[in-house]
Write a structure and sequence with these properties.
This protein is α+β, with helices and mostly antiparallel strands and 660 residues long. It folds into 2 domains: 216 residues, Creatinase/prolidase N-terminal domain (Creatine Amidinohydrolase, Chain A, domain 1); 399 residues, Alpha-Beta Complex (Creatine Amidinohydrolase). The strands form 7 sheets. A 6-stranded mixed sheet has the order 4-3-2-1-5-8, with helices on both faces. A 3-stranded antiparallel sheet has the order 9-10-13, covered by helices on one side. It is globular. The two termini are 53 Å apart.
């Protein structure tokens, strides 16, 4: 791979003593994309020809980064955050840049990239294009960086000014015989399945949006411009994380976990010991942001913080401008649902904690809380390579419904039981009946209307959740299908299931090693969902205890627990242990350094679950922390949650920031 390696370099960070992200992470990402494009090109060649592409073919990826914005018609500039695809390929934090990645496949290439097909790997050349700034920029914004400084900072092969991009691309598409037939320009175009927004070629300056940046080569009739190949491959590349990405995601999830514990410990609700001080929800959000920014340089959050207390805890995306975390935590008997995640070097975390505001669980709240925590436990028992994320969702729903049955919220009419059945038979019948209600009649969606979780990476709701429409080898990460326990073949990227609850799943993918997902079961009492389920025509109506729900749980709010989790392949781990990852990377966060990994493997030596989240989770842990106890603890009371680093002596939070 012809890349300027710069392996000793790290991204410029928020502070000299903060976690350092190596440039190698982004170089590996570009190599990964090149190999996938090469594999796709070879897979789509004529089967009767040699498996080796004998004639050189060139793929030119042209991608524009995010642009600088001002707020409406003012000159106020909000904090810029790089466009996510561009960040994944470059790590460039500045706006108004572009990149051209030239990939040469076959024809005796001597690059070190492997296509996985036994063919010679592609050669890659990366050129970054940056704006040519006027001299007065230095007065207002600081020193103007030279092209050589840009090159060294980001580990690319060359850096040119943006106005040179047209000429560079125009020259590169032709071979020595001035023939462009072997060259293809790849542009990014495709829908984000969460936002429903389209990423299309206008983003890089084609058409009316940026007419001054339109490249003339896009208008040449003899140039092959492809807008279908790049999107599914690039999106799919982002779903499977490299070791360096996993280490970074573990770091940002750890600091998010410590911030949640910090907020818990500093809750001040109405009590004589606090001189009747009352907190607002936004103050809890402020504590979280202060801790992650002051201690760890996390300037941005991964999404709008959700700090719902009391009935607001049943509003799934509370905290937006119309509901800005502004309610008083009215009394010490309120319960809280805090969904907050830090972002570090554009990688996200997403954690939700639920707990009583006064730090003491009531039997009523504990029963709902344990149902949700048991749902997490059930999912972790099920998670494995080849398992459908849809099945994980259903397992979570079923565990919550079982908990609600124990409470009496869900019931089974007496006339459905046989008087002659034994206790064991009754137990079996109840479990089967509850599973039928969940699977066939979607009872779980009444209380958990959202999906179990989502892919996470550079975006909190990361890309690649639904790529089933691309069926031309572009989304075949390792194999086209995967085998589950029942030996049925399933596609790796199944379509969305249009049923209550399941339609809200942000991915229905089959789990694979190094895929990072959130596991966030929840139980809520939402009026309109209860009203619909109570309708006499609804098959679920007779299985709900309307009197108990109406008298005790309407307006009660909800509970959600959210962790960031991955599956680690021990085969990949051993292979990565042999790789030369720079020793300056923060090894205290290394996935591979835990001596406890062997204790958490399931009945299969090929993989284990790693839960990056280190929050207090059990009732005992939460009450201990909120009473002022030290966190992380010396002992793990819930090893079934797979928090592998919870008791690692090398993992400890920074102290509380100074207060005013």
């Amino acid at each position: 791979m012809n890349m300027n390696s710069n392996n000793n370099q790290f991204l410029p960070g928020p502070g000299y003593d903060q976690y350092k992200v190596p440039i190698e992470l982004f170089q590996q990402n570009r190599s990964k994309l090149a190999n996938r494009l090469a594999s796709s090109a070879i897979a789509n060649t004529n089967p009767s020809s040699s498996s080796v592409v004998k004639k050189k073919s060139k793929k030119i990826v042209v991608l524009k980064g995010g642009i600088s914005h001002s707020r409406y018609d003012t000159d106020f500039e909000p904090i810029f955050r790089q466009e996510s695809y561009f960040w994944w390929l470059t790590g460039v934090k500045e706006p108004d840049c572009s990149i051209v990645i030239s990939i040469t496949i076959g024809g005796g290439s001597t690059g070190t990239g492997s296509t996985g097909t036994g063919t010679v790997g592609p050669t890659v050349r990366t050129v970054l294009f940056v704006p040519k700034l006027p001299a007065e920029y230095a007065t207002i914004m600081g020193k103007i960086r030279s092209l050589e400084e840009w090159k060294n900072m980001y580990g690319v092969d060359d850096v040119l000014y943006s106005n040179e991009m047209d000429g560079y691309c125009g020259n590169y598409v032709y071979d020595d015989d001035h023939d462009s037939s072997s060259c293809q320009i790849l542009l990014l175009k495709g829908p984000n399945t969460d936002s429903k927004s389209m990423y299309d070629e206008k983003t890089i300056g084609v058409g009316e949006v940026f007419p001054e940046r339109t490249l003339s080569i896009f208008n040449m009739n003899n140039i092959d411009i492809d807008t279908t190949t790049l999107f599914p491959i690039l999106a799919d590349c982002r779903t499977i994380k490299s070791t360096l990405e996993l280490q970074l995601m573990e770091h940002v999830t750890q600091i998010t976990s410590f911030a949640h514990a910090y907020v818990m410990r500093n809750m001040n609700t109405t009590s004589q010991s606090n001189n009747n001080r009352i907190m607002y929800e936004y103050q809890c959000e402020s504590l979280f942001k202060h801790y992650t920014y002051y201690n760890y340089g996390s300037r941005l959050t991964a999404y709008t913080s959700i700090c719902g207390c009391g009935p607001n805890s049943a509003i799934l995306h509370y905290g937006h401008t119309g509901e800005p975390n502004s309610r008083k935590i009215i009394n010490e008997h309120d319960h809280c649902l805090f969904d907050m995640g830090a972002e570090y070097q554009c990688y996200a975390s997403d954690i939700t904690c639920s707990f009583p505001a006064n730090g003491i669980f009531t039997p009523k709240y504990e029963a709902i809380y344990e149902s949700v925590l048991n749902a997490q436990r059930a999912v972790y028992k099920l998670m494995a390579p080849g398992v459908s994320y849809v099945e994980c969702h259903i397992a979570a729903e079923l565990e919550i419904v079982k908990g609600l049955y124990k409470i009496g919220i869900v019931t089974i009419p007496d006339d459905e039981f046989d008087d002659d059945t034994t206790t064991i038979d009754t137990y079996i019948y109840i479990n089967k009946k509850l599973e039928i209600l969940v699977r066939d009649h979607r009872l779980g969606a009444v209380f958990m209307p959202h999906g179990l979780g989502h892919l996470i990476g550079i975006d909190a709701h990361d890309v690649g959740g639904y790529l089933h429409e691309y069926n031309d080898d572009t989304t075949r990460s390792n194999t086209t299908t995967t085998t589950t326990n029942n030996n049925n073949q399933q596609p790796l990227t199944p379509p969305r299931i249009e049923e209550p609850g399941l339609k809200s799943l942000r991915t229905a993918r089959i789990l694979q090693p190094n895929m990072v997902v959130t596991v966030e079961p929840g139980c809520y009492f939402i009026d309109h969902l209860l009203d619909e389920a109570f309708q006499p025509t609804n098959v679920l109506s007779k299985y709900l205890n309307k009197e108990l729900i109406n008298s005790e749980y309407r307006g009660y709010g909800g509970v959600r627990l959210e962790d960031v989790v991955t599956i680690i392949s021990t085969k990949e781990k051993n292979k990565n242990n042999d790789s030369n990852i720079n020793s300056e990377v923060n090894t205290s966060s290394s996935l591979l350094s835990s001596s406890n990994n062997k204790d958490y493997k399931k009945n299969n030596n090929d993989y284990y679950i790693h839960n990056f989240t280190l929050c207090p989770r059990t009732v005992k842990e939460i009450e201990y922390v909120m009473a002022g106890g030290k966190w992380p603890p010396m002992k793990d009371d819930a090893p079934e949650l797979f928090r592998l680093k919870l008791t690692d002596a090398n993992v400890s939070p920074l102290p509380s920031p100074p207060s005013i």
